């Protein structure tokens, strides 16, 4: 699914209106209808609905929603700035329609504290949408501050008021804190970054029927990884195949005390379809690896840490989990990286070793996949002001070095040398545990060995890893989820794709 800027969304909206020969009011009605259905689905037993409307089209959505919910027997109360009714055209039409319904009370923002709003009531923020272009101040600002203190179910229409859609919002802005954001047709960039996403709560995207023809022709380099993309990437296994057809994955991982990292990466690679798996680890991990993952072959790479890497034939490598940064390992890893010609997966301590020896970056084979978490990224490429800037820096480095950068986060980004950004929306905070990254390295190496392109392996692997996390969290809780649970769910994710 493409990700667009607010400017592009406006353009798509206008062109849809043109080619479908509809009035813009129709789109607002579609938006309100979709909102209404969602609210009925999620909160049908809710008694009171307090809707706060601005003067623009976001407010217009709020007025139309109020009318539709009223006809569904919800007790609706409207709030707007009665001292400054400076409506845009469609908001005005919907406001006037609403005035005709005498059972809906229309109140000024300043009256909000006179109402008893209960924790089971809905507070709906239709103050500002993607048209926000400055800080919320004055009466609206005071209102948002009050709403943020109220204990009720808080829903933002399209985007929480106060957030910019496409860029970081300054720290001193007043922003509505939503439990849920119900947004129209597209994800917005603000939902995907930690500094801004924390205001959005759960995200629900509603199809309001904007023209697919227009959407297809509008160019974007930013994408949300969705099921359609994954199905297009997934390669079905040929019935007439043998282990030689699915590649030789080589996991280079582990050191004394961190053999678990090698085990996790190895098991994840085994579960992700590779034909043969080899694990290069120090001898101290031999017994552990051979008993916990007997399908994999052990290659001795040293005593207590890796000092020597000898690859089997046709190896596709994933290097880094639990290696440690012993001087001998450092030397060995640098020497190894210098001599590689095929893309490989580079994670964890291998990234830390590169950070200390940045000149090696230029020798890494094109289209290799680097999987830094934010701290590792910072060590590799430097500190940025915020996570939006981090994406920009990653784009620059991916292009310069011709590498795929997987920026691991709640919404991991896959950044390509061609300057595309793919945002992942699977995964959950149960995965925020040591070992989850090792599982990802195993998955990515396995997919790369099966001849998925580096870009597709990264997109598919990151999505699969998160989806396995979501399946695992369904079963237990996020607190008790373990990285091994991700591995156990990889099979279910493949089934999900095949079905
Ligand atoms: N796209 C679609 O397909 C559909 C979109 N729809 C809906 O339209 C929404 C976008 O509506 P919108 O363009 O009217 O902008 P909105 O956010 O209501 O702001 C209104 C105006 O407020 C002003 N303003 C800005 N910041 C301010 C501030 N801090 N404090 C005070 N004023 C401020 C600024 O005007 P200015 O004062 O700069 O002239 C701005 O123009 C969208 O989010 C969705 O809900 C659906 O109806 C149907 C399909
Ligand atoms: N809150 C979260 N939501 C979704 N995914 C997460 C979250 N926290 C961590 N993850 C995922 O878990 C993995 C953690 O990797 P990393 O930090 O390298 O862990 P480790 O090296 O300790 O195994 C990443 O793929 C990351 O995207
Ligand atoms: K809003």
Automatic annotation (TrEMBL):
It comes from the Bacteria. This is Bifunctional NAD(P)H-hydrate repair enzyme. Transmembrane segments: none annotated. Binds 1 potassium ion per subunit. Belongs to the NnrD/CARKD family. In the N-terminal section; belongs to the NnrE/AIBP family. Its cofactor is Mg(2+); K(+). K(+) binds at residues 58, 125, 161. InterPro entries: Carbohydrate_kinase_pred_CS, CARKD, Nnr, Ribokinase-like, YjeF_N_dom, YjeF_N_dom_sf. Its EC number is 4.2.1.136, 5.1.99.6. Residues 9-216 form the YjeF N-terminal domain.
